[in-house]
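Exam review. A common question shows you a sequence with its structure tokens and asks you to describe the fold in words. Practice with the pair below. Do the first one on your own.
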Amino acid sequence: MDEQNAVGTLYIVATPIGNSRDITERAREILTTADIIAAEDTRRSVVLLNKLGIRGNALSANHKFNEYGKARYFVEQLQQGKNVAVITDAGTPCISDPGNELIRAAVGSGIRVVGIPGCCAAVTALSISGFDLSTFLFYGFFPRETADRRRVLSMMRKGDTRTYAFYESPKRIMSAVEFFIEENAGIRLCLCNDMTKLHEMTFRGSPAEVREQLLRKGNYEKGEYAFIAEVCEEYMLREVEHISSPEALLVDCMVRHDCTARDAIRLLLGDENNTYSKNELYAAHLALKERFG
């Protein structure tokens, strides 16, 4: 393995997301020869390592609850010339998984960081979606709360990107799909369940169609999900050219509702047809005040 000036190398190693045969030869080599393997869950990782016939490495926990404190330990080991391989339970480290704190600490200490590419659930799901992938955005886990979900949906409608990748727990997948139905979201979904495993399934269509497919499956609350959402062209919110100035809108609202400027701002911010921001409306209020007293 590569060494620079007796300082070790930090390897970020992608592992299979289900089928152990998806391990790359290079990943197997790095995991075999690394002095330390930093694993998200040592109990799960030891199962994979045993399948690959890899033994004798020092396996050390590196999960979201200890990664801040553990980063210093790993950097010390690297500075002593040991090579460290970072793995997660499945897929590529740092993609909604631990690893970033260690990488930052290593980079800050001048330690070489090398990526060993391989499986990534989000990229695999994107590749089979059939959606527009000229640009896409990986969000991570879909929010749990309705207000947060609505903010994400609004972002999806207003963005230049039409395709979004999310992870979701099997216990919440139906809730996520039903959210899109309740919001009348103009999107298409591609839900990927248990990718690369024996009973891998893909559910495609509108949110309502996907819901019916999940219900037909019956035991949909098993196995992890990566889901891709493509926003339909007609559902996108395009920026429109302002017809009226914010000052004119503000005065019109005050007259129509016989209210103060502050109340008018509040009313306009609650109007879905208003395209001005809070700051723009407040600036208009100050401009009116300065001009007319």
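Now try the second one, then compare your answer with the model answer below.
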Amino acid sequence: MTIVRPGRRFLLGAAVLLLTGAFSLSQSAAVESTPASQPAFNEKEFMAYKQKGHGTLAGQAFLGASSGKAVTQAGAPVHLIPVTKYTRFWFDHLVRATGCSSPGEPAAGDAGAAPHQPVNCAHEALRQLEMDKRLVPYLRTTRANPTGHFWFTKIPAGRYYIVSMIEGSSQKEDGPAGIAWLTIDLDASEKATNLVVTDCKNTLC
């Protein structure tokens, strides 16, 4: 008969726990590192967004400076993008999930990489969207005024991303650059006003 002393029993239990934890971590890492695949473009998901509607969207696009000020840019493009499986992949991977690093900050997950400037990151994300010609009939774009305010009219009901690229302060001060965004559900004939479109580094998101 084999006798397991209390101290040895404790060591055996700890070893089992360590092995189990290591296995769980390896499984978790494997799941996280598995890249998501781009969904196929399904025109049926976009058809409702092609027609003119009766909704209105109005708000302000800005980025938050370290001083607490709102940084706006006159003429900054503001894009209204239908939310579908196809555009959600673009948004989750290039806007919300990875975002844009601050100046001098390495890209996420690559400490040895050169800094990824926010303005370049924003250009890259929007360039990929605009190069997809299949999306052109369903995208709407306007320009922000000097205070960052914008308006969209004749919008059909649906779920949208509002995305704006801001390249820096227009007041000659050291302001941030990057992408401001918001997700909104619009009902038929709804007039949504005072929308806050920002970089979500503050409590307004």
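Model answer, second protein: Confidence is low (pLDDT under 50) at residues 1-35, 101-116. The helical segments are 6-33, 43-46, 85-96, 118-130. Full marks require stating both points clearly.
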